serine-type D-Ala-D-Ala carboxypeptidase
Amino acid sequence: MAFPLSQLRRPRLTAGALARGLIAAVLVMGIGWGGAIYAANQSVQGAKKAEDAGFDGDAPTAILIEASSGSVLFEKNADELRAPSSMMKLMTAEVVFNAVKKGDIKLTDEYRISENAWRRGGAPSGSSTMFAAINSKVSVDDLLHGAIIQSGNDACIALAEAMAGNERIFAADFMTKRARELGLTRSTFANASGLPDPGNKMTVRELGMLARHIILDFPEFYKLFGEKEFTWNKIRQPNRNPLLNSMEGADGLKTGFTKEGGYGMVGSAVQNGTRLIVVVNGLDDPDDRATEAKKMLEWGFRNFETRTLIAAEHAVGYAKVFGGESRSVKLVAKTPVKVMVHRNGSDKLIARVVYSGPVRAPVEAGQRIGVVKVWRSGNIAVETPVYAAEAVGTGSTMRRAIDGASELVIGMFRAGAEKL
């Protein structure tokens, strides 16, 4: 079944310039499911962010995500910036994971616990600590255990100082830079631990994105989040994640608390082959934090199931080509386009391929063109990259001239409409 989708807004054309704007392509969907799917005509920017009426959440900010597809099952003020507290240690851990993966550092490397790390994050600080001794040397592996399982601020500071010289440089040149590479566009960092600082801000959406990335891209390190205790300096401390002992399949990730941010946590659990990620923040009580996260996960497992909308390498839609041998190119997703839907089949899905175009020829096979976005009940449920299924060579001079004239006329009409 094919759905013709309207063209979205484009920028004005200047003489001789090619109009390159956001376009919704023709979308091809074959769904073995009784729910309805529509091709929407409203702009992408106008997508509604309604809360899911099927869940009554008490957390000021919250999000529930299916890990495999990234499908959002529930969100509430998910883009509100708040102090992430110790949940920000996920970003510090990811920077270290990535450095180990790239070979820049080794797990066996030993870093010194400076007086600064000891005083600000160690035993004298009164904050969460792994109790590393001043001037002692601790391996990267043990520092990761201390930071993740014990939420050790001394471990995070020691990692930052060893890798960057000091925390401020680590926050700016390592954490922020890496966050932007991962698509975390709003997060800001002032230190490595999440200790109170006005510069530490994250949204629950970006915390969920970060958690999903760690789970999918660093499975060898993710298992650390599920370890229930760690002993250092002869002091045994349990993992601070309350879900590990209270919910089937729970194996991560991180809790946090500061007066500025309130109580929050990033949690994840697997049941019947499905992994969900929950993030809550801004609660007034640690018990409420645990209860809310567990309640949201249980609601997700109970009410949703995964459906495949489009199989991998099957046609998703077509993108318009400028100056090519062909006027369009078929688009495919390299992975199945899946979305979590209510088991009762009551969801209304809206799907659209969005790309910047028309795409200028030549087009290479496998070239990334855009994304297919799926909305469920007004919220973006999943985004999946789409690629050119075949190559499109450069067309004749006449073909390019006709396409150029066509784009110029469209731009003139659009510019005239904007003046009305």
Q: What stands out?
A: The first strand starts at residue 2 and ends at 3. Residues 311-418 form a domain with the Peptidoglycan synthesis regulatory factor (PBP3), Domain 2 fold (CATH 2.60.410.10). Confidence is low (pLDDT under 50) at residues 1-21, 28-53.
